[in-house]
Design brief:
single chain; mainly alpha; Tetracycline Repressor, domain 2; Four Helix Bundle (Hemerythrin (Met), subunit A); 2 domains; 12 helices
């Protein structure tokens, strides 16, 4: 009797352990679809939109955290839904063939769809309740743009797909700018436009490196539609707009010389690096430009932060 009880109990424990293990594995899979690097980047841009406001220091900790949390939830939800809708295309590309939903069963696919929807609704609802209708609406536009217009329409039908997709990060900036106050500022618009032009500079350099992948998946990209040289000219045009709007931001906001010098130097380097591609169309340079485009936006954001801290210290805010 004792042995029978012990054996039966062991089976129950093993069954319970297997269930918990499966649940944990499934949860980690779903979380991996949220694309943390992307939602962190977009959340930072939303915060920058809020930080640029002259009345930033009057915002409460709750309001700031609410912006970060709602943006993370909405972006993470959009990323999971992107996995869901792109699961067949992802299987055709070497870069994405190992994503969780490529060979997933129907149950996991439906769970991913439900998870992405819940995250999005939670983020938008949280934004609406704490930050106001305009901030929530702009966050919603960013989500709709990414999932509907970029993922389901433009990505597979136009080589302007990257340009359209980049609008989502611009909406995040405006959501941060409009949070609590319900107003969009000139500096918020300029920063949003600057990021709109930066996104193609960033992704078109990357797309050149994966031309064959995109061809295989039948995703139109500028580089294989108009060639590397014409793509370089198009990138340079966008770099010019990025630099112009980054400098305009220094004149039309509360930012000062620390930011302006950072933006000017980083802009010249970005321009020079991409200009070099007119004479050398090697993948090595496109990869280098892609990497530096990340560094460029970090320099811009750090320049903004240090400039504001410097100005606040001069005005005695931190004393």
């Amino acid at each position: 009797m004792s042995r029978s009880y012990t054996s039966s109990n062991s089976v129950r424990l093993n069954g319970s352990g297997t269930f918990i293990s499966t649940l944990l594995e499934r949860s980690l899979l779903l979380l991996s679809m949220t694309k943390p690097r992307i939602f962190v980047a977009i959340t930072i841009t939303a915060f920058m939109g809020m930080m640029l406001r002259p009345d930033f220091l009057v915002f409460s900790t709750l309001e700031i955290i609410s912006l970060l949390v709602s943006t993370i939830l909405a972006c993470a939800g959009g990323a999971v839904l992107n996995h869901y809708f792109e699961r067949k295309t992802d299987g055709l590309m070497n870069r994405t063939k190992n994503r969780p939903l490529v060979n997933a069963d129907r149950t996991l696919c439906l769970q991913a769809f439900a998870f992405g929807t819940v995250l999005t609704v939670a983020g938008l609802a949280f934004s609406y309740l704490v930050l106001g209708w305009l901030s929530a609406f702009l966050l919603f536009l960013g989500f709709i743009n990414y999932v509907l217009f970029y993922t389901l329409i433009f990505k597979h039908h136009s080589f302007w797909n990257v340009t359209v997709g980049g609008l989502s990060s611009s909406f995040a900036i405006l959501a941060g700018d409009a949070a609590v106050t319900g107003q969009i500022s000139t500096s918020g618009i300029i920063l949003a436009v600057m990021l709109f032009f930066w996104n193609p500079v960033h992704f078109w350099n990357l797309a050149v490196l994966y031309q064959e992948d995109y061809k295989k998946a039948k995703i139109p990209m500028v580089s294989h539609a108009i060639g590397k040289l014409n793509t370089t000219w198009l990138i340079l045009l966008h770099v010019l707009f990025v630099v112009v709007f980054s400098l305009m931001l220094g004149f039309s906001s509360i930012l000062g010389m620390v930011y302006f010098i950072s933006a000017a130097v980083a802009g010249l380097v970005l321009l020079g690096m991409n200009f070099q591609n007119l004479f050398d169309l090697s993948n090595r340079l496109f990869r280098r430009n892609f990497i530096f485009s990340n560094m460029y936006i970090l320099i811009i954001f750090f320049g903004m932060v240090f400039d504001l801290m410097f100005n606040y210290s001069l005005s005695g805010v931190f004393s």
